[in-house]
Design a protein that fits this description.
four-stranded mixed sheet; 60s Ribosomal Protein L30, Chain: A; alpha+beta; 2 domains; two-stranded antiparallel ribbon; single chain; 2-methylcitrate dehydratase PrpD
Length: 501
Amino acid sequence: MLSMQSRTVRPRRSDEAFPRDQHLAWAIAQLAVDPVAIDDDVAAMVVNRVIDNAAVAAASLSRPPVVAARGQAEAHPAAPGATVFGIEGRWSPEWAAWANGTAVRELDFHDTFLAAEYSHPGDNIPPVLAVAQHTGADGAALLRGIVTGYEVQIDLARAISLHRHKIDHVAHLGPSAAAGIGTLLGLPAETIHQAVGQALHTTTATRQSRKGEISTWKASAPAFAGKAAIEAVDRAMRGQTSPAPIWEGEDGVIAQLLDGPDASYEVPLPEAGEPKRAILASFTKEHSAEYQAQAWIDLARRLRVDHPELLEPGAVRRIVLHTSHHTHFVIGSGANDPQKYDPAATRETLDHSLPYIFAVALQDGRWDHVASYAPDRAGRPDTVALWRAITTDEDPEWTRRYHSTDPAEQAFGGRAEIELTDGRRVVAEIAVADAHPLGARPFARADYVGKFRTLAAGVLEPEEIERFLAVAERLPELRPDELTGLTITARSVPAAPKGLF
């Protein structure tokens, strides 16, 4: 049974006595240096998520944001350096993390954790891995670093909401990646403390990257945070200091960017000697879409089978998806973004449009990371008609379950109420996605491997697929010279457009 300590975090005046050992950044540093053993189920889940990241990266290697980021990395060769997905060679670790982080995030198809804030904690893996490869670390050290990164980001997301104040969620990722790198390298708490503060200070940005017409920066924002974390660690190792207390200061993040000078949060962190198990609270995606859409895709597929009358031309008058506050206001009609109903919208916008996703999943009975977003698919007249008949509405009970701390009760779905033109009604609900640990078909190792094989097919040679899986499944025991095998080399990749470098 975990005995997570709850740390009260609140703003402090500059003239208030506030010793360093009470700072949240110092507590995170202490967590990072705690040499507690890694539980076997946690180690197994790290392997799953490394495979998952590589799977979605393989599928994104030819997409423009990934091509551009890879081109920037290629302009920064280094020895020893780190690997970059898709190509052979070694590159400066911060730029390798930038390229790989963009590849992992581009399709919005890897793991997630949702609480007071939402997150994709798999974003910690590219920066920690890049530094591990560059510094000659072994698999055991890499494992410890990744586990710390997950723990810190998830614990921050459990307690501190960023989106409520229109701050992008990567403000939790900068500190978590810095802490994970600190664990990986065995740095002293003082150095990690400074790196965490610098990483947070440089990664607070607005949520406009996820509002309206969503741009290619959506994929790059977490990669930027990972790159910033590596640079923060480098500066801290050179003796440079950071703004402190970064969260609690009078002009710090909480007082000026979040809930203000009277705010107070209870941040759960493992006690000294307590295993870091937060990764097990996260979950991956079966479908390439925003996580709150996962369960709705599964419900749409089910409705298609149970109620074929919904597919008859003109059969549906309107559909209301009753769901949580967050789902309604971020990917639903509550966002008041007309782009969420625009057939010419970007892929990044469509994967944050629940009405679009539900319409296509209902009509097609499946979800494909390419075909479901194709312009001709989005513009199909019958789809547009159905899509524009779908709205969302906040239901207080689904909001309560979204924020529940009881895993058995927490839910990310809702209730669909469908009115047919002949007067009939269909009502159905779903709490969690089929792939969720409590879903109809929880993801296990075979599913992660199957996802990798599916997404890598045609991108990697068959022998490269098998080589990567063999290395990844041995992650905890890899020697330093084997760590460079945790990458993928594609059959071919597009040349990057020219920039400054």
